[in-house]
Fold this sequence. Notes:
- The chain has about 325 residues and is mainly alpha-helical.
- It contains 10 helices and 4 strands.
- The chain has a two-stranded antiparallel ribbon with strand order 1-2. A two-stranded antiparallel ribbon has the order 3-4.
- Strand 1 and strand 2 (about 10-15) form a beta hairpin.
- Helix 8 (about 180-190) crosses helix 10.
- The two termini are about 25 Å apart.
Amino acid sequence: MSEVVTGDAVVVEVRVAQMPSRAVAIVIDMAVQVIVLIGAYMLLGAFAIVTDDAMFGAVMIVLLVLVMIGYPVLFETLSRGRSLGKLALGLRVVADDGSPERFRQALFRGLAGLVEFWMFSGAPALISSLVSQRGKRLGDVFAGTIVISDRAPRESGQAILMPPPLAAWAATLELSQLPEEVAQAARQYLMRWHDLTPQVQHEMGMRIARQTTAFVSPAAPAGVPPHAYLSAVLAERRRREEARFARQAAALGAGSAPRATPYPPYPPYPQPGPYQQQAPYPQAPHPAQGPYPQAPRPPQAPYRPQPGPAPEPPKATPGGFAPPQ
Length: 325
């Protein structure tokens, strides 16, 4: 993992691509380039019959430049930092601040790659990657880029759970307009919640929550933390998908149209996840008892009020989300 400071001065952790995966991606790209050159040379064989050697040599030089430099520059510019080899290995080239790769940066990488890989068989790239803490080759150093891994490790056994106080509200949500990209960003944020600093937890959560509220209605109750709001949205979305798949499977098994069945109940809500701190919203024993009823208290001695000012309620930040504790 490596930290990247974005243009908004937010520290984000990214997974730097390892040298073996980068080497395999480079081998794939070079194999594609060699195949293209061989095919082009065979097609230009007929052209050599009707022209002189000087013209044939000039055409071959132009073809070499287009394949060796134009191939990585064109692919990485159009696909935002991916060539065929990087696409196969799940890698991407980004700027040092995490922004997408630009044409100027792709051109610097392509020119340096001609020297590193084709002229010196990759020795300069290997030495530079071993010396650099982020595994940068010379092209990355000159262009101000870094190669990261887009494929996050699979999180096994970690399900996004529904906060009980938000279950009744989540059942009324309209989720049909929520894009998959926004839902995936919220899911990755919740999975990495414990690995982020408190400031990044709140800032990133607020940003993703604001994006989600543009597609989800009704709005979140006042005083709900961003991570709890996102968890409720994703848990309700997953429950509806599972119910829909269950109805389809039942309809296929019975050979009839699917019947309307109630959503399955939520599993018990344990403590793991980003909910270990005390929530600023009231707790409810069960969503069927109302939106936010107070949980029953055990029998105790009669309450005797103590002198002193009453505590102030937590102030909500813009968008109705509570500030970090």
